[in-house]
Amino acid sequence: MKRLALLLSILSGTLLIAGDPSGSEILDKIIDLMNPENAKGVMEQTIVTTSGDTRTFKYDMYMTNRGEKSLMRYLSPSRVKGNALLMTDFSDNIWMYNRRTGRVRKLASHAKKQKFEGSDFTYEDMGSGDSWKTDFNPVLKGIEKVDKVHCFKLELQAKSEDVSYSKMICWVRVGDFFPIQIDYYDEKNVFTKTLFLQDIRTIEGVLTPMKMVMRNNLDRTETVMEYVNITYDVEFDKGFFSERNLKK
Fold this sequence. Notes:
4 helices, 13-stranded antiparallel sheet, outer membrane lipoprotein receptor (LolB), chain A, 13% helix, mainly beta, globular
């Protein structure tokens, strides 16, 4: 019986062997790779609706302290040009600036679970950072092939009901520990959406997914986020990531 179980495990591609990293070690590597110290770039976000219509936004993106703080300034379309968004404490605190009214508004704490600019990304998805370590228990489920690439199957299990997702499954390349797909399950354990990280390049020594596609499995919509350009060799003045700086 043991031999049969071993054979089935080998055939399914989920066999774990001595020397494989633990779930915690893999998660540490993911966070380290996905959250460089600082970053500055231009991004385009295209939302594909259920009817197939598209809406595209372009904005400057700034990030510091390994994702703990981020700021975005909209460049287009004209109706949102000049608007800005500030997130701190890994999206626990969110401020929005509206150019037309000249006002800064702090969003309620539960807003981080809402859609970012009507997209398939939530505010929390945009700025999770180290929170994965505090909110989830990482469990290595095996090694499987995804798009012909050997990947660790890492399951992140929510530690409490306060977390937006009951679990996430990360498909992480064995060769360099970079995730290429993340499956999200909501509070009721329903498989809601999948993030695909594509066109992964090395920019200034940092592995960078130049294209990210979030596909909503329930609404049949998707959002594509692409870097127009990005650099990690950047420093920010004190006070750059502040409510006052939103209006500049």
